[in-house]
């Protein structure tokens, strides 16, 4: 068996150190000097500690309860080691919390029932390692404390692995210099997601800290210049469009397609200019360049808009009217950027835009950036935990020269990243797409392009969304959600009531799979009719439907498939119960295709409790049914977007992606 320390080995704290948690309590409850008192009263158990505190603070029970709640709320998994734990392994902790309290925290992240040995100082003193009936079976012990986990264990012949990366690394220390809480969140992202992939390393050492610092600069620039709307240009603005709204949700920002080729087309340029020429004063943000294309083709025709190029090629950038740059000639200062450009490090998971606004194939494999997506998803989750618990996150303002200094420090660290040349071999940003190049096309899976339209035109390749796919079939054939999961790290629920196909979904998809039929009631048994006649493209079983809701025109269209049929009984679940069960109440994309029961399912949905931003719904060439769907969804505050053969698409008014 193997043994594992608990805190900072398999579980971490978002606030980094225990004494930071005490400071949070002091701030939340406004108890002067509580942090100092809590540390001075430290005993070998939690209850003894608070017995001591009770001598000074009579209302100690409230504080004691809050500390336990925060230990739970602010815990996060260190998956690299948590996922190593196998049946038969043991956990060993010197923590002052009880076994029950520690186990509750662990099981928040992974349900395990391995033996847990808890006693203050029993590792450091050697008392645990002297227990030969246990220790003689340990093949290796993992821990982050060099004295109690390594030296003490080694004295008793236990082989060990020292976990030496739990302190702040260099980029995190740079962030800590102005915002300790942000640095702790980046550390938590690193420890949660860490693996040997170079893109994972670059996500939390390059992309995340640099985009955070530059987002702060962009926010300051807007505040100082009375700008109320920010437009991040594709493709360089992709990660800014994800991270900036996390930090500054009150600011109006969005992502828009733009390229050199697109701007040379008069009609495409006209549409782009029209989008900019509204009442709000806007800031258009580009990551890297000279500003020549935008200033020649766009700027002369727009008003109330400024262009910010963060990394300007030359000082000429600032000579254009309403054009500014923060950082000039980064390559001259940082040798690494001559080989790997800042555009490579911040590359987007999609191709450039051609002269007619079409989406070109990427010049690299976009799945490489799933590591970035995962880190951004985790950062957003942890940031929101701090917000939910009213924990202050320091986001100060600086002068431009301080931002330049911070960016310089972060860029200087890149050359120390292990195997950084591997990144350069896999990502190479093309500045011109006018000639042929090696292409890595995105594969779409929908029957009639539903996924491609949604990804390219509605979400603009945005990652980390949530889907609900009702009528998932085998999970891949004709799937409207597989490309979202495969390329863009979307998560969600697939509902497929045919047992054989639900099992196929479980084998090929990462999403939650529900093997029941969506119905008005939960727990009923209903008849599902399965066609057993002629085959159709993709498989006739995808035509299966609830027997009592089989529409005559539907049977007529597919009469060859239904000339033979069979019936099975399946258990049902109400859509609200499904969402409650999985604690999902905000859905970015709903695909619903259940052969005639779509509208009945939506009529049972609680639209006040559940937010669904975009819906693809099958009406199956039945114009009366199409009209019923239209009337219902428009009454629920949805706009009709388009008809796509046998599907209609709707978007919630005011929805943002």
Characterization of this structure:
By secondary structure, this protein is α/β, with parallel strands linked by helices. The chain has three domains: about 1-160, 3-Layer(aba) Sandwich (Rossmann fold); about 170-415, no CATH class; about 450-515 and about 575-650, 3-Layer(aba) Sandwich (Rossmann fold), CATH 3.40.50. It contains 27 helices and 23 strands. The strands form five sheets. A seven-stranded mixed beta sheet has the order 15-14-13-20-21-23-22, with helices on both faces. Strand 4 (about 90-95), helix 6 (about 100-110) and strand 5 (about 115-120) form a beta-alpha-beta unit. Helix 1 (about 20-30) crosses helix 2 and helix 9 packs parallel to helix 11. About 40% of the residues are buried. The model has no long low-confidence stretch (mean pLDDT about 95).
Which key phrases capture this entry?
657 residues; alpha/beta; Rossmann fold; 7-stranded mixed sheet; 5-stranded parallel sheet; 27 helices; 23 strands; 39% helix
End-to-end gap: 47 Å
Number of helices: 27
Count the domains: 3
Mean pLDDT: 94
- State the secondary-structure class: alpha/beta
Low-confidence stretches: none
How large is the radius of gyration? 28 Å
- Tell me the total number of β-strands: 23
Strand content: 15-25%
* Cα shape: globular
Classify the helix fraction into a percent range: 25-40%
Largest beta-sheet details? 7 strands, mixed
Order of strands across the biggest sheet?
A: 15-14-13-20-21-23-22
């Amino acid at each position: 068996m193997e043994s594992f320390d608990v805190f900072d080995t398999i579980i971490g704290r978002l606030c980094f150190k225990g004494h930071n948690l005490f400071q949070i309590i002091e701030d939340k409850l406004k108890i002067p000097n509580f942090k100092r008192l809590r540390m001075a009263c430290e005993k070998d158990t939690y209850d003894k500690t608070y017995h001591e505190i009770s001598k000074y603070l009579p209302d100690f029970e409230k504080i004691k309860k809050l500390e336990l709640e925060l230990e739970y709320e602010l815990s996060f998994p260190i998956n690299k080691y948590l996922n190593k734990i196998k049946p038969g392994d043991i956990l060993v902790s010197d923590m002052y919390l009880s076994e029950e309290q520690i186990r509750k925290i662990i099981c928040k992240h992974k349900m395990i029932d391995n033996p847990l040995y808890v006693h203050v100082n029993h590792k450091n003193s050697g008392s645990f390692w002297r227990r030969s009936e246990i220790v003689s079976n340990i093949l290796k012990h993992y821990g982050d404390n060099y004295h109690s986990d390594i030296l003490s264990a080694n004295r008793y012949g236990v082989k060990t692995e020292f976990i030496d990366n739990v302190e702040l690394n260099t980029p995190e220390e740079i962030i800590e210099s102005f915002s300790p809480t942000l640095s702790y969140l980046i550390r938590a992202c690193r420890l949660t997601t860490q693996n040997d992939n170079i893109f994972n390393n670059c996500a939390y050492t390059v992309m995340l800290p640099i985009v955070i610092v530059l987002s702060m600069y962009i926010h300051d620039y807007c505040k100082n210049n009375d700008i109320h709307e920010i437009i991040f240009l594709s493709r360089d603005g992709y990660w800014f469009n994800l991270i900036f709204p996390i930090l500054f949700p009150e600011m109006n920002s969005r992502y828009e397609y733009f390229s050199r080729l697109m701007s040379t087309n008069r009609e495409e340029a006209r549409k782009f200019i029209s989008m900019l020429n509204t009442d709000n004063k806007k800031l258009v943000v580009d990551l890297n360049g000279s500003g020549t294309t935008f200033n020649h083709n766009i700027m002369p025709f727009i008003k109330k808009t400024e262009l910010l190029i963060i990394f300007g090629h030359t000082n000429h950038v600032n000579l254009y009217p309403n054009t500014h740059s923060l950082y000039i000639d980064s390559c001259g200062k940082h040798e690494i950027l001559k080989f790997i450009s800042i555009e490579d490090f911040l590359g987007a998971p999609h191709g450039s835009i051609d002269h007619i606004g079409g989406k070109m194939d990427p010049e690299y494999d976009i799945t490489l950036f799933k590591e970035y997506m995962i880190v951004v998803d985790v950062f957003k989750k942890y940031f929101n935990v701090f917000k939910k618990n009213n924990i202050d996150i320091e986001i100060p303002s600086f002068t431009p020269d301080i931002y330049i200094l911070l960016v310089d420090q972060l860029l200087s660290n890149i050359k120390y990243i292990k195997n950084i040349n591997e990144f350069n071999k896999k990502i190479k940003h093309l500045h011109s797409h006018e000639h042929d190049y090696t292409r890595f096309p995105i594969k779409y899976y929908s029957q009639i392009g539903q996924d491609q339209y949604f990804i390219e035109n509605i979400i603009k390749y945005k990652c980390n969304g949530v889907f609900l796919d009702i009528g998932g079939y085998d999970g891949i054939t004709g799937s409207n959600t597989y490309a979202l999961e495969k390329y863009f790290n979307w998560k969600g629920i697939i509902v497929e009531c045919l047992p054989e196909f639900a099992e196929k979904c479980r084998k090929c998809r990462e999403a939650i799979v529900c093997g029941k039929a969506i119905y008005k009631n939960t727990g009923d048994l209903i008849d599902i009719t399965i066609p057993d006649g002629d085959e159709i493209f993709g498989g006739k079983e995808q035509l299966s439907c609830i027997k009592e809701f089989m529409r005559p025109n539907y049977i007529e269209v597919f009469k060859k498939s239904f000339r033979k049929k069979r019936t099975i009984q399946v258990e049902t679940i109400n859509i609200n119960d499904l969402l409650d069960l999985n604690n999902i109440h905000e859905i970015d994309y709903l695909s619903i295709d259940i052969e005639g029961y779509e509208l009945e399912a939506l009529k049972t949905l609680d639209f006040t409790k559940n937010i669904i931003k975009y819906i693809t719904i099958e009406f199956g060439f039945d114009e009366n049914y199409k009209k019923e769907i239209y009337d219902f969804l428009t009454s629920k505050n949805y706009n009709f977007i388009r008809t796509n053969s046998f599907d209609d698409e709707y978007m919630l008014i005011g929805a943002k992606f």
